[in-house]
């Protein structure tokens, strides 16, 4: 039997890591919106609630704007006001569909070849409110086309998220005062 070199093991391990980062996943049992119309989803969304994590730490007035790129991918511009630093911050990314673009399973990259899951798991028929799951129970967003969300939609989205195992009590409710 041929012995495998350390370099080969490293390259295989690194390739496996890249592959795992490049494939979107979803918490067990989470639905994906089918019959998705990407053209209707494009535009500006206000972040109503999220779990706190490093990239959005100390941000309020957060929005996401989606556009269609020439290569067919989706442009992503996330913007928020850092209330600790007293200034606006912006991050740009690209998103691509995992499979057909009529299924709301995407992956987003802010850093080169590294992608993370972006899955729309609930969406109203008028494309005004969305519940978005990342690739684990650590990432969840409630989005709206306006700075508020109706109480019944909020209640439904929280119930769905809780049924999937999300700790909805840990959500940060985003201020939109700027």
TrEMBL record:
Residue span(s) of domain Lipocalin/cytosolic fatty-acid binding: 37-175
Cytoplasm recorded as keyword: no
Record Pfam families: Lipocalin_2
Family matches, as InterPro entries: Calycin, Lipocalin_ApoD, Lipocalin_bac, Lipocalin_Blc-like_dom, Lipocalin_CS, Lipocln_cytosolic_FA-bd_dom
Membrane topology value: Lipid-anchor
GO CC list: cell outer membrane
Signal sequence region: none
Protein keywords: Cell outer membrane, Lipid-binding, Lipoprotein, Membrane, Palmitate, Signal
Family to which this protein belongs: Belongs to the calycin superfamily. Lipocalin family.
Assembly mode: Homodimer.
Record protein name field: Outer membrane lipoprotein Blc
Gene source species: bioreactor metagenome
Name of the gene this protein is made from: blc_5
